[in-house]
Amino acid sequence: MATMEAITERNRIKTITTHYIDGAFVESHGREVMDIIKPTNGKVIARVTLGDEEDTRRAIAAAKRAFVTFGRTTKEERAGYLRRLHEAVSARIDDLTAAMVEEYGGVVRFARLIVQSGIDAFPAAEKGLDELPLTRSWGKTTVTLEPVGVAGLITAWNANALFICLKLASAVGAGCTVVIKPSELSSLQTQVMLECLDAAKLPQGVCNIVTGRGNVVGAELVRNPDVAKISFTGSVAVGQSIMRDGAATMKRVTLELGGKSPTILLDDAALEQAVPSALVLAFMNSGQACAAGTRLLVPKSRLDEVKRAIRDEMRAFTVGDPADPKTAVGPMVSQNQYERVQSYIRKGIAEGAEVLVGGEGRPAGFEAGYFVKPTVFVNVKNDMTVAQEEIFGPVLCVIAYDSEDEAIRIANDSKYGLHSSVLGSDLQRARRVASQIRAGRVVINGMTDDPQAPWGGFKYSGFGREYGQYGIEAFLETRAILES
Ligand code: NAD
């Protein structure tokens, strides 16, 4: 007979079995069941039934049918749908934040900002659409921007709800219909998003969600000739496979991939602001952020001061329960991610980097769950593995430089080019440095955001842009009609 404890445990576990296809919650055709593990204690909190190729094809067929009408909607109609989506997702900000905290250990103070940023994507797309001329004519020529067709939106786990909102806002603004393949590790967030889509009451088939594995649902989206475009957020390796496999059906692709972002601390920086800013950039989302500023470039003349300031400031970067608003760094998402971070810390030490703060193993008092020590390496050379590869955890590399030119050279000496940052008192100089960094975004004097500003990478960080007008353009084709 089951004990009371076992029964309570079973009742606590959520069960998710549906996708959202053609305007309805639909039981999964796929039968594989996956456990969702709570990263703070390693226990099962949900069981999700994953979709298969058949679920995906049904969703694609629904999106294809819906596109016939939706692809011809006016700007005003699309703006109305964006407002409905905005309203529906705004109403669930608490639930989405709670799901992020629960299923991947996102720290609540950051998770809420992330969800808000997703919500902001809808009005940003509305504004972008309003300002984007969809028709231009001269003489006997008319040029129109047309929705590309059915779009497959594939997201990473680390800010799943944000990525869904971003991609959805751009696609709907452009007049595309979509099949969303969220990260299978984010099923609780996805469940809330399913309910948001239903509440928004868009025309049947415009937005569909199928939860499933990348090599099953994702691969079908990439392969299927009825899907015209893939917008992907995730790792370089999967991005490359999407580009390769998508070529067979001439897919348009937007790839939002990894990063190894530099933060250049200039020699005139006020350390009492610059060092906390650099640490926030490094440890955002517990370091599990594509934009994390994981290489801090420091002038040799100020290195000792900066090291002292880092040691002091790191006391504020407390590890703990992600649901506690005081916590700055939560657990890693999974056992794999925990092992990955540990192996990079060992590699850094083996290559000669020196641990200033943190190091290998779990923080004291955290025996369960996937907690790691926020770690700062000094004496790092930019060609070390820890300075070149994306760790996706709370590990910061401090690299010393002699001159401004050398700092810029080191910043750009990376295969990535997603995000970067410049910290300094002389704004003209900071701008001059920013203009020489090969990255899709450079922030000056601290992390900041603008939902109209494009987001995306140079080099291996991918291509295409998201947010506002730039995001919508990525879902459009250009057609010219000429009269003789
Ligand atoms: P991932 O590449 O493993 O998975 C991303 C998504 O792709 C998931 O939904 C997964 O199921 C799917 N997928 C896997 N194999 C596939 C296939 N063969 N075909 C189609 N889809 C497939 O990445 P992840 O571990 O979820 O996320 C971490 C990575 O994402 C990091 O590299 C990080 O830098 C990157 N990222 C980039 C951005 C950005 O905006 N540039 C934002 C967040 C995360």
Give the names of the bound compounds: nicotinamide-adenine-dinucleotide
Shape: globular
Fraction of helical residues: 40-55%
Number of helices: 16
End-to-end CA span: 84 Å
How are the strands of the largest sheet arranged? 15-16-17-14-13-19-20
- Describe the sheet with the most strands: 7 strands, mixed
Structural class from helices and strands?
alpha/beta
**How many β-strands, per DSSP?**
23
- Quaternary state reads single chain
Strand content: 15-25%
Quote the average pLDDT. 96
Flag low-confidence runs.
none
Backbone CA Rg: 23 Å
Brief synopsis:
By secondary structure, the protein is an alpha/beta fold.
Structure characterization notes:
The protein is of the alpha/beta class and 484 residues long. The protein contains 16 helices and 23 strands. It has helices at 4-12, 53-70, 75-90, 93-104, 108-131, 160-174, 187-200, 214-223, 236-246, 271-283, 303-313, 335-350, 385-388, 404-412, 427-434, 468-473; strands at 14-16, 18-21, 24-27, 33-38, 43-49, 135-138, 141-147, 150-154, 177-181, 207-209, 229-233, 252-256, 262-265, 295-299, 354-357, 375-378, 395-401, 416-417, 419-423, 441-444, 458-459, 462-463, 476-482. A 7-stranded mixed beta sheet has the order 15-16-17-14-13-19-20, with helices on both faces. A 6-stranded mixed beta sheet has the order 10-9-8-11-12-22, with helices on both faces. α7 links the parallel β9 (177-181) and β10 (207-209). α3 runs antiparallel to α5, α4 (93-104) packs antiparallel against α7 and α10 (271-283) packs across α11. It binds nicotinamide-adenine-dinucleotide. Nicotinamide-adenine-dinucleotide is lined by residues 154-158, 181, 183-184, 213-215, 218-219, 222, 233-235, 238, 241-242, 256-259, 290, 390, 392, 418, 457.
